[in-house]
Amino acid sequence: MSTAPKAFVVGHPIKHSRSPLIHGYWLCEHGLKGSYERVDVAPADFASFLRGFQGEGFRGGNVTIPHKQAAFQYADALTGRAKRLQAVNTLWIEDGRIHGDNTDELGFIASLDQALGSDWDQAARTALVLGAGGAARAVIAGLLDRGLERVVVANRTLERAQELTAFDPRRIEAAAWDKLTQALPEADLLVNTTSLGMDGQPPLILDLIALPDHAVVADIVYVPLETPLLAAARARGLRVVDGLGMLLHQAVPGFARWFGVTPEVTPALRAVIVADIERRA
Ligand code: NAP
């Protein structure tokens, strides 16, 4: 007897995750039997959760804060993307083994392609990335893979930005946080990957006057959808990309693995999540 496929999102805490809404939307859109559930697991219990989820009927799931590095350590097999970022956000069972992938890079680049058109990179030589945490690694990897010539990483803790240059010392430069405005005139793309601007965090206040007129400003924070940085960029007449696209696109590969259908990121899906963000604001 075959049972309906089940997938999870595991984190701690997990109640604010929008992933169940995204995957629930796709299950419904494609008329699939199956479920996608939130599972709250404390760090001390994560290894035993990984050993046991298959026995509970799960085909796999998403992994979020604070378990992405632990999932990387415990997975039996890893994609090249997961190895490079040393973090896993998507798990599935294949040949009885736990496989791990990281789809954040793909999600970020797909969100730029969808928002700007896939030729956005033609006019993008230099990117200025703010932040050097886990999400920054995915963003930087995506920009390098897309062929950008230069990525300047500015971070409050300069050492973390300097560590990231090891990814590609020829193309990545570290910049001190208090010197980041010096990099603005050459930035074709500015990306905020810090938590500044997120609900409950201080805003990211930056004078964008020195950015070129053709520059694009992207923020991977998506609550609120229009961060103070994006509002300032819009007021300056620049093109902007919000963080919701990355969240939606990073979810696609997992859904395809667990439920067998490759879903699309459509305006209708986006509208559902935007309504949820506004409802909870
Ligand atoms: P993380 O690993 O904890 O990194 C946080 C980054 O923010 C670090 O670079 C940190 O600098 C910087 N930061 C924090 N507070 C700061 C402040 N007051 N001033 C200056 N810099 C500050 O977090 P993460 O996983 O990379 O996530 C970062 C943000 O991206 C979060 O808001 C998260 O929700 C968002 N995100 C969005 C998506 C999406 O799909 N749209 C995916 C992943 C993450 P230090 O190194 O100096 O501490």
Mean pLDDT: 97
The side-by-side strand order for the widest beta sheet comes to 2-1-3-5-6-4
Radius of gyration: 19 Å
Write the H/E string, N to C.
EHEHEHEHEEHEHEHEEEHEHHH
Quick one: overall form? globular
Helical residue percent band: 25-40%
Beta strands, count: 12
Under CATH, the topology of the largest domain can be stated as Rossmann fold
- The low-pLDDT segments are none
CATH architectural designation of the largest domain: 3-Layer(aba) Sandwich
Total domain count: 2
The helix/strand class is alpha/beta
> How many individual helices?
11
List cofactors, ions and other ligands: NADP nicotinamide-adenine-dinucleotide phosphate
CATH superfamily label of the largest domain: NAD(P)-binding Rossmann-like Domain
**Biggest sheet record:** 6 strands, mixed
Could you tell me how far the N terminus lies from the C terminus, measured between alpha carbons in angstroms? 44 Å
Structural descriptors:
281 residues; alpha/beta; Rossmann fold; 2 domains; six-stranded parallel β-sheet; 12 strands; binds NADP nicotinamide-adenine-dinucleotide phosphate
Report what the structure shows.
The chain is of the alpha/beta class. The protein has 2 domains: 6-103 and 251-280, Rossmann fold (3-Layer(aba) Sandwich), CATH 3.40.50.10860; 105-244, NAD(P)-binding Rossmann-like Domain (Rossmann fold, 3-Layer(aba) Sandwich). It is built from 11 helices and 12 strands. Strand 1, helix 1 and strand 2 form a beta-alpha-beta unit. Helix 5 packs across helix 6 and helix 5 crosses helix 9 (244-250). It is globular and about 60 Å long. The mean pLDDT is 97. NADP nicotinamide-adenine-dinucleotide phosphate (NAP) is lined by residues 104, 107, 131-136, 155-157, 160, 193-196, 198, 202, 220-222, 243, 246-247, 250. NADP nicotinamide-adenine-dinucleotide phosphate binds at residues 104, 107, 131-136, 155-157, 160, 193-196, 198, 202, 220-222, 243, 246-247, 250.
